[in-house]
Structures are given as C-alpha cells and as structure tokens.
Design a protein that fits this description.
Blueprint (H helix, E strand, L loop, with lengths): L10 E5 L4 H17 L2 E8 L17 H19 L5 E7 L2 H9 L8
Parallel strand pairs: 1-2, 2-3
C-alpha cells in the first residue's frame, strides 16, 4: 500500500518494555503505521515490585515510573527520527502490561471507565 492509498483512519497499538525484541516490535509498528497512514499508540507499564513476607527496602530515590518514562522517551527519539510525520500517542501506565494493552487496544468508545 502506498501512502496515497492509505485511509489514515487506523490506529496501531504496541507495548514495549525496553528489551531488544520489544524495540523491534516498535520499529515494525512504526513502519506499518507510516505505510497505512495510521496513528501509533505506544504503551509502557510499570509496577512497584511486590514482596511476600519480608518488607523490601527501596532507596529513597527509587522511582520506577521515572525510569520507564526515560526509557520510553529514548525509544520515541528513534521513532520520531525515522518517521517524522507519524502521529504518536505514548502512554506510561501503572499496572500489569496485559490489562493495560488490552484496554488501550480497544477502540476509545468501547473502553470501560
């Protein structure tokens, strides 16, 4: 499909965790969105580490959300450089990746509050 044939009404959702394979998935999703005239929605999640029995002490500057935001921004720099005209909607979500991706993957009018 050429850009002239694309309808521009689609949306591609991809979840990443910073691993090489997830960044490959992001690169594929960005190319596909560019080819089809779709927007690209990128999800990256974080959770507080859980422990059972023992209380886990975290350093005072431990901020998993900040770390995830930094990793997402690094990934976005590459995508924006390779696809400058692509509409990108990045999301950092507190929670498990599966429900977050399922929720974001639904059309907006079908998402429960």
């Amino acid at each position: 499909m050429t850009p002239e044939q694309a309808t521009g009404t689609g949306r591609i959702v991809v979840g990443i965790d910073g691993s090489p394979s997830s960044l490959d998935a992001l690169a594929w999703a960005a190319r596909q969105a560019d080819l089809t005239g779709s927007s690209l929605e990128i999800i990256m999640t974080w959770e507080w580490p859980s422990s059972y029995g023992w209380a886990v002490a975290f350093p005072s500057d431990f901020d998993p959300e900040k770390d995830v935001r930094h990793a997402l921004e690094s990934a976005l720099e590459v995508v924006r450089a390779e696809h400058p005209g692509l509409g990108i909607d990045p999301h950092v979500v507190n929670g498990h990746p599966a429900p977050a991706a399922t929720y974001r993957g639904r059309p907006p009018h079908r998402r429960a509050p």
